């Protein structure tokens, strides 16, 4: 009888060990599945962040190139406007010079007419 009790006890312990081992494997399997699901979920977010970062980097490079081109074009426009302003100043200077010469010529012509008239009057008298 003692031997039968011992065998029953050993059989129950063996069943409990098997049950415990099965539950341990199931728990490990469930934990592994959960971990994989969490990692996959995180990886999706990380992958999306990586894709977004690459897009942003590309957009930044494009914007830098466009800003550089705009800066060069603006510098060219400024140079052209400054040249145009200088040309306008020169035209104004030439116009003033021409007026001055014209006034000098009129003064000289008037003086010559006055002298000529004076000579004609003195020759007639």
UniProtKB/TrEMBL annotation:
**Region feature (Disordered):** 1-22
The Gene Ontology CC terms held by the record are:
BLOC-1 complex
Spell out the reaction equation it catalyses: L-lysyl-[protein] + acetyl-CoA = N(6)-acetyl-L-lysyl-[protein] + CoA + H(+)
Q: Biological process GO terms, please?
A: endosomal transport
Query: Pfam families, from UniProt?
Result: GCN5L1
Q: Which domain of life is it from?
A: Eukaryota
- What protein family does this chain belong to? Belongs to the BLOC1S1 family.
Q: Which PANTHER family match?
A: BIOGENESIS OF LYSOSOME-RELATED ORGANELLES COMPLEX 1 SUBUNIT 1 (PTHR13073:SF0), BLOC-1 COMPLEX SUBUNIT 1 (PTHR13073)
Q: What is this protein called?
A: Biogenesis of lysosome-related organelles complex 1 subunit 1
Protein's organism: Dicentrarchus labrax (European seabass)
Organism lineage:
Eukaryota, Metazoa, Chordata, Craniata, Vertebrata
């Amino acid at each position: 009888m003692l031997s039968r009790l011992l065998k029953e006890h050993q059989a129950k312990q063996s069943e409990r060990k098997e049950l415990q081992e099965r539950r341990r494997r199931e728990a490990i399997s469930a934990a592994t599945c959960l971990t994989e699901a969490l990692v996959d979920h995180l990886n999706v977010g990380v992958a999306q962040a990586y894709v977004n970062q690459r897009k942003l980097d590309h957009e930044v490079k494009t914007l830098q190139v466009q800003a550089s081109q705009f800066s060069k074009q603006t510098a060219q426009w400024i140079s052209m406007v400054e040249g145009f302003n200088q040309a306008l100043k020169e035209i104004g200077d030439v116009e003033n010079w021409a007026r001055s010469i014209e006034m000098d010529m009129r003064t000289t012509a008037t003086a010559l007419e006055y002298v000529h008239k004076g000579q004609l009057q003195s020759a007639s008298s």
